[in-house]
Fold this protein.
Amino acid sequence: MGKGKSFPEHVAIIMDGNGRWAQRRGLPRSAGHLAGAKNIPRVVKAAMEAGIKTLTVYAFSTENWKRPVDEVGFLMKLIPRFCANQLKAMLKNNIRLRTIGRTDDLPEFAKTALLDAIEKTKNNTAFTLNIALSYGGRAEITDAVNKILNDPNRPQGPLTEQDVAKYLYAPDLPDPDLMIRTSGEMRLSNFMLWELSYSEFFVTPTHWPDFNKDTLQEALDSYAGRNRRFGDVKA
Ligand code: IPE
Ligand code: IPE
Ligand code: MG
């Protein structure tokens, strides 16, 4: 698959619709979350094959803590399960795992599993899977401001956008070129407010557990036809 300007290096996905996917099948919401978690490696494989270098997936927002305690508990238990199931494949396929978000707020068992997988995959270079967990765009910017205030080595004088960006959760990653939202909602739900400033959006009615390489290709085809002007005037 060809790369270049019409091809996104970093794709971000709001993995929405697990609940609706389950409801449609007469299953509990947890079944949708399980199917959703199982879909991540399939989409990673498709993204790698397509030539994408970095995939950020929104798995749990700062607002998702409001959900019923059983649902939150189920989602938290999926984290170590995902790490245990995927570590071997990530090592074999040269995939680096990382996270963004207030991951300190996750339960200890989830943090331990994540830290272990992050450490073991840290030198992998073919692909980066970045999972947004206890992530909020406003939280990220607020955390950046507090890091700046607490940094004795912060730049002196008025900060530039580049200075501020260095305090975000993953300053070394390029901004997403393309943001995909599954399940049809036309909103950001507090996802990557800073980084998505100039990203192209693609919303599909497909629920996340059904999102596959064909839906990804639809998004990539749509992206290839976009005219990214960044505020400039270009043909
Ligand atoms: C996305 O699916 C997963 C999380 C937000 C954790 P939802 O659980 O939001 O599914 P819907 O939107 O209710 O269908
Ligand atoms: C966004 O989905 C968060 C994730 C996919 C993790 P939500 O289902 O939480 O968003 P809203 O509530 O519909 O805006
Ligand atoms: Mg939802």
